[in-house]
Amino acid sequence: MSARQEPIRVMLAKLGLDGHDRGVKVVARTLRDAGMEVIYTGLHRTPEQVVEAAVQEDVDVLGVSILSGAHLPIFRKLYQVLDGLAEPVGFAVLAGGVMPDEDEQTLKQMGVADVLGQDTTPETIVEAVRTAAANRPVVV
Fold first, then answer.
1. Domain 9-134 carries which CATH code?
2. Is 108:94 a contact under the CB 8 Å cutoff?
3. Which of 59, 64, 72, 123 has the fewest Cβ atoms within 10 angstroms?
4. Cβ neighbours of residue 19 closer than 8 Å, sequence gap 6 or more
């Protein structure tokens, strides 16, 4: 396998009514410092808006930050939107924020590549994004 030449493209998104974005901004800076291209969608986005933006931006990884406690219905809706696309997507999805440990398996069954809690170290986040990018779906 050859080494990746271009930087990993990551989109970070805040879905729903969650208005807390300090953490996702710190993550964005961490990923940029690690050499990745980062796009932040801002607050209060819908799953449809985020999926459309991720497809248009041709990202490798979509990171969704949730602190509202609404992670399960939000990810269900996100995957409904993804499943409804005419073409499969070529990006991995990561979940980050505050989510109970017991929901991690449910999120992974939906398709989430990894779940990163609020106490995840910057080094672990960078490695999780690199791993997700390397293992993302290949669309031809």
1. 3.40.50.280
2. no
3. 123
4. 43, 44
CA distance 2 to 130: 15
List, in sequence order, every beta strand (DSSP E) within 6-137. 9-14, 37-40, 61-66, 92-97, 114-117
Helix (H, G, I), strand (E, B), or coil: what is residue 35? coil
Domain boundaries, the chain: 9-134
Q: Please give the span between the terminal C-alpha atoms of the chain, in angstroms, as a whole number.
A: 18
pLDDT in tens, 93-102: 999 999 999 9
For the chain, the farthest-separated pair of C-alpha atoms sits apart, in whole angstroms, at: 42
pTM > 0.90: yes or no: yes
pLDDT digits (tens, 9 = 90+) for 70-122: 999 999 999 999 999 999 999 999 999 999 999 999 999 999 999 999 999 99
